[in-house]
Amino acid sequence: MRWAVLAMLSACLAAAAVACHSWQAGPAQRAPPADSGPLLLDGGGNEFQPPAGPAADNSRCHVCHLNYVQEELAVVHARAAIGCAKCHGDCDAHIADESWASGGNGTPPGIMYPLAKINPFCLGCHPPDRIPAAKHKAFLAGSAAEKHCTDCHGRHRLAQRKCKWK
Predict the structure, then answer these.
(1) How many other C-beta atoms can be found within 10 angstroms of the C-beta atom of residue 85?
(2) What are the CA-CA distances from residue 30 to residues 24, 37, 41, 147 (Å)?
(3) Are residues 106 and 166 in contact, defined by beta-carbon separation less than 8 angstroms?
(4) 100 contacts 106 by C-beta, under 8 angstroms
(5) Which of 43, 70, 77, 110 is deepest in the core (most CB within 10 A)?
(6) Backbone phi, then psi, for 28, in 5-degree steps?
(7) Element (H or E) spanning 55, and its range?
(8) Model pTM?
């Protein structure tokens, strides 16, 4: 029952995010439709833009990890049709385990990356010859002291884990 409620909530929030932003047409803003409800229009131009074409379906992950719906690294990869499972594995046991909610340890995703493994994994799809050299000069030269791809790209690493894996 709890799984069904969380899945429905996630679907509703995802639909709301698309609906709230679908009235925008590029950089020029026009008034939202009258039936769209109250919106915060700060004019900052940094509004979330949902993928416009085929994208990875990460809805199973977003049921619990709603914080990644708009996270830069996840969104960029989803727009390229690369979903969470590509990096973290198909994790049915992780997805089905709700024990963490009651203080349990939870089941980890199929693949997790300690700091030492982040760069080698990222470089598997983003080889050095395809990375913009000007922005990554120190990193590519090996002189960037303990720099990890996720230090600059997105907010994908958790600052603090709320459970310990089984």
Answers:
(1) 17
(2) 7, 15, 11, 42
(3) yes
(4) yes
(5) 77
(6) -85, 125
(7) none
(8) 0.62
